[in-house]
Amino acid sequence: MTVSVDMGTDGTGSSVPIDVEELLATRLLVQGNSGSGKSHLLRRLLEGSAGMVQQVIIDPEGDFVTLAEPFGHVVIEASDHSEREIARFATRIREHRASVVLSLEGVDVEAQMRCAAAFIAAMFDAPREHWFPALVVVDEAQLFAPAAAGDVPDDIRRASLTAMTNLMCRGRKRGLAGIIATQRLAKLAKNVAAEASNFLMGRTFLDIDMARAADLLGMDRRQAEQIRDLQRGSFLALGPAISRRPVAVKIGPVKTSARSGGVMLLPLPEQAPAADMRDLLLAPVPIEPTLPLVAPAPRPVPAAEVIDAIERPAPAALPDAEPVDPGKLAEAIDRALRDLVADPDSGFRANAVLFQDFQTRCRMLGVSAASIGLAEFGRRLAATRAGIDLAGDEDWNQAMALAAELPDDMLGAFLLIARAAREGDACPSNDAIAAVYGTQSPGRVKRLLAFIEQRGLIASRTDLAGKRTIAVPQLGWTTAPSEAQAA
Which residues form the Helicase HerA central domain (predicted)? Predict the structure, then answer.
């Protein structure tokens, strides 16, 4: 049975449906100038498919938060949360199959791009068991996938563009069906727009946008002129989920509306007499107190006060601080590291941020960790995550020397494997390595192991039973065979 949403009527009055199952596999691109009815079209599609499929809406203007009450969408206000929290929310959204609206209203463009990039990337990197089908609607997509560099820093633009490209190019296998809407095709990155197989083209006037829209619809130059004449709420539709030939569709009514409402004429208030209005508008502005530009002259100090200050005995020197017992210091540092590793969020935070947390924990334990720098902290943290003690063990000094060429974030994973190999324990599973590496992506774990193996630090093999063994050849250590994916 075909599951479809009635989008409106064509020129003959017949309904024009969108096949939701086909849409999940082929994606959708919506284009139209401001005021052409793009948000109305998206709202019609979302209202019609609510309850059929999970919906995730990235909303730069907060227009779709009104879906929450009638359809049960959860609204996430980006301005109330950090970037790391937004990424964690995205992971939970995929796990629990909740329909949400990520409202980016109230934050600047750079923050919107960072937030959207983290959100989409976290959904994309979700574990395979959470790859449920979902419609991912991105309004004003040209903000998140710009065709050219602008005023936004390059690293932010690249992160946002990469997330959008993954959504449209590789999201289908993960159950993510991208639905993107843009005011101008010329401002949208071609790699993102080209992955859509369904199109709804609204009114546009610039020749470059008309040419790209006509090319996507398979129309010649003369036929493209009709795009300029489309009425508000009317679109030319084409695609396997809609129609095999371009068809004009008038979008039907919706149940909800944006918080801002439509633009319409309102009667002006009764005007006060011109003289009164002038007095009202040009009333004196109160002067706010400001700091003086010149510092006031210091108060003259009487001679008696100066003589008294000279003759007053000097305060007793403070006693030297008692030296901290080295054993107590080492114990406190070890405890702070263990407590830090026990925090489930610590694997997803940068070492520089964790270092500040570590110093605070040491001070709360009554010691100062000033003797440990950031580099030493990274080594100790990786060892603690791997469950090893570096003190007084020559074998681990050799292992640390071997790992000197690895990036800091890979050290913990290598030490985890080395510990299992030294003790002859079962080979760590991908999940155990991912927890130490600070990721939830199986693909990143595979690339991590391949990177370490290319440098000759480990050698892995998988037997016919599917069990993996990893050796550290230069130290002569080998793990016991075990399943790569824990049950």
Answer: 10-73
Tell me the per-residue pLDDT of 120-149, one tens digit each, with 9 for 90 and over. Answer: 999 999 999 999 999 999 999 999 999 887
For residues 392 and 417, give the distance between their C-alpha atoms in angstroms, rounded to a whole number.
Answer: 20
The domain segmentation of the chain, as residue ranges, is: 4-251, 407-487
- How far apart, in whole angstroms, are the C-alpha atoms of residue 213 and residue 31? 8
Could you tell me which residues come within 8 angstroms of residue 295 by beta carbon, excluding any fewer than 6 positions away? none
Contact 118, 124 (CB under 8 A): no
Instruction: In whole angstroms, give the CA distance from residue 478 to residue 426.
Output: 9
Both structure tokens of 154: 């390059």
- Residue 276's CB is within 10 A of a number of other CB atoms, namely 10
Please count the other Cβ atoms lying within 10 Å of the Cβ belonging to residue 455. 13
pLDDT tens, residue by residue, 40-79: 999 999 999 998 899 999 999 888 999 988 998 999 998 8
Distance CA 355, CA 378 (A): 8
Place of tokens 């017949």: 14
Phi, psi of 413 (to 5 degrees): -65, -40
CATH (residue range 407-487): 1.10.10
- CATH architecture, domain 4-251: 3-Layer(aba) Sandwich (3.40)
Question: How many whole angstroms separate alpha carbon 385 and alpha carbon 371?
Answer: 21
Residue 319: is its pLDDT beyond 70?
no
Closest CA to 120 of 85, 166, 155: 166
Helices (H) and strands (E) in the chain, counts: 18, 15
Q: Enumerate residues 6+ apart whose C-beta is below 8 A from 329.
A: 367
State how far the Cα of 300 lies from the Cα of 168, in Å rounded to an integer.
Answer: 74
Q: Which residue has the tokens 């849409």?
A: 23
Cα gap 119→113, rounded to integer Å:
10
